[in-house]
């Protein structure tokens, strides 16, 4: 018999039970559910709503149930519907009528809202640590490769020279913002909904602040209707995870390109690559491809919850049972991706010669050549046109800007002199980009220190 069956004269159909039950996925919140119940029982006893002795009996039994669940001694059955009813059933079986008093001044509506927040708070902390570990790996790779010259791209066309460290710091800053988003999300999530009841609180003299403090919340939710019907904290978290996965997906795309024979800028460690069942020469970047693919999965989880919530009136609706599976899936997917991505990065090898060779092609110093003419007094648009014609000449004659003779340069402008060769040298091109955010030694050092300090502040 279901705990809520008093008003009903017939049992629910088996198909209804199957559709209605959530214990198959919400049982993972048994720790949060029991932790919340212990705090609630303690408050009920302290407020004189139930006898203090009964509260102590309930708390002792709940701790025993928690220990048994952690050891897998308690089975989760569909007849219980959800983890809340499962815990209450086992509690009542163990201590009798005292167990039936636990649900005083509480609803499954505020109970599940509490469990989810407790669970997601914990998950955000774990994901944040994983993310900080990844940022540390990116920083380490950058520190070791400040002098590895490579082409930077626009439209996937070689554009201007940079170095590998500068490239890595772009991703380090993206991941830094992802960390900040999670921290912001955690701050807004840090509100306790317990005490909201089913929707309009309760007639009992409960102490919501006591429960919030005991459960580690910064404050209580200010409106009971909002307390049971809000899921924007979950949407915000999943949005932050989706943006993070987008960054990992872009990074993955770079890795996939760079380890192809067309680029061959990097080589992945054998431990983080796979082979082909038919082509013995293959070494596939499957880890990066899977991260790229799983990004769509996290996006789908986010939009699943958006769709569930888009037209629900206040307060709780059964539709909201559909919040947990996409939330759990998004969290689980991210937690699988972050550590393996960090390990893949930390073990990859750079092919510096190939990077430099690629930087030598594609006329990526053309902008610098135009800047040379500007520094000689020509307007930029005039200089741009002159260098464009010189590049076209090089293409037609199989030359590069570095191999043009001074006489050939002067066909396009008499302003050119022998110092042009030093100006368009790739190392010079990088070192002269000495403005904040650029790849030259001083601004690059500032970027590295900025991320290092960011990590140190969070140790």
Brief synopsis:
By secondary structure, the protein is mostly helical. It is built from 20 helices and six strands.
Account of the protein in words:
The chain is mostly helical. The chain has three domains: 12-104, Fumarase/aspartase (N-terminal domain) (Fumarase C, Chain B, domain 1), CATH 1.10.275; 109-357, Fumarase C, Chain A, domain 2; 360-456, Ribonucleotide Reductase Protein R1, domain 1, CATH 1.10.40. The chain contains 20 helices and six strands. The protein has a two-stranded antiparallel sheet. It has a two-stranded parallel sheet with strand order 3-4. Strands 5-6 form a two-stranded antiparallel sheet. Strand 1 and strand 2 form a beta hairpin. Helix 7 packs antiparallel against helix 20 (441-456). It is elongated.
Question: What's the architecture of the largest domain in CATH terms?
Answer: Up-down Bundle
| Helix percentage range | 55-70%
Number of domains: 3
Termini Cα gap: 51 Å
The number of distinct β-strands equals: 6
What is the ordering of alpha helices and beta strands? HHHHHHHEEHEHEHHEHHEHHHHHHH
């Amino acid at each position: 018999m279901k705990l809520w069956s008093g008003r009903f004269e017939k049992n629910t159909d088996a198909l209804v039970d199957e559709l209605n039950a959530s214990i198959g996925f919400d049982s993972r919140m048994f720790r949060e559910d029991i932790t919340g119940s212990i705090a609630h029982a303690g408050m009920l006893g302290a407020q004189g709503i139930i006898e203090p002795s009964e509260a102590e009996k309930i708390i002792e039994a709940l701790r025993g149930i928690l220990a048994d669940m952690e050891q897998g001694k308690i089975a989760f059955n569909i007849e219980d519907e959800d983890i809340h009813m499962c815990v209450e059933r086992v509690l009542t079986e163990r201590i009798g009528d005292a167990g039936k008093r636990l649900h005083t001044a509480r609803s499954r509506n505020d109970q599940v809202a509490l469990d989810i927040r407790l669970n997601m708070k914990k998950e955000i902390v774990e994901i944040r640590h994983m993310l900080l570990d990844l940022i540390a790996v990116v920083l380490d790779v950058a520190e070791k490769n400040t002098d590895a010259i490579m082409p930077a791209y626009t439209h996937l066309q070689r554009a201007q020279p940079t170095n590998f460290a500068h490239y890595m710091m772009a991703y380090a800053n993206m991941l830094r913002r992802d960390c900040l988003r999670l921290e912001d999300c955690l701050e807004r999530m840090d509100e306790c909904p317990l005490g909201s009841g089913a929707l309009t609180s309760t007639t009992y003299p409960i102490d919501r602040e006591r429960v919030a403090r005991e459960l580690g919340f910064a404050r209580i939710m200010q409106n009971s209707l909002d307390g049971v019907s809000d899921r924007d904290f979950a949407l915000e978290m999943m949005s932050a995870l989706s943006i993070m996965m987008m960054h990992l997906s872009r990074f993955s795309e770079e890795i996939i390109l760079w380890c192809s024979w067309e680029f061959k800028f990097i080589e992945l460690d054998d431990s983080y690559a796979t082979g082909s069942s038919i082509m013995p020469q293959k070494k596939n970047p499957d880890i990066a491809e899977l991260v790229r693919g799983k990004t769509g999965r996290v996006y789908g989880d986010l939009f699943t919850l958006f769709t569930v919530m888009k037209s629900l009136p206040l307060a709780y609706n059964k539709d909201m049972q559909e919040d947990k599976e996409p939330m759990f899936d998004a969290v689980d997917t991210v937690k699988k991706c972050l550590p393996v991505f960090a390990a893949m990065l930390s073990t990859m090898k750079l092919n510096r010669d190939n990077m430099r060779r690629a930087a030598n092609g594609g006329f990526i110093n053309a902008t610098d050549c135009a800047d040379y003419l500007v520094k000689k007094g020509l307007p930029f648009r005039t200089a741009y046109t002159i260098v464009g014609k010189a590049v076209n000449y090089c293409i037609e004659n199989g030359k590069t800007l570095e191999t043009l003779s001074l006489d050939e340069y002067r066909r396009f402008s008499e302003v050119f002199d022998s110092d042009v060769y030093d100006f368009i040298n790739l190392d010079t091109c990088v070192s002269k980009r000495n403005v904040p955010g650029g790849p030259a030694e001083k601004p690059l050092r500032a970027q590295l220190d900025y991320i290092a300090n960011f990590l140190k502040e969070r140790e």
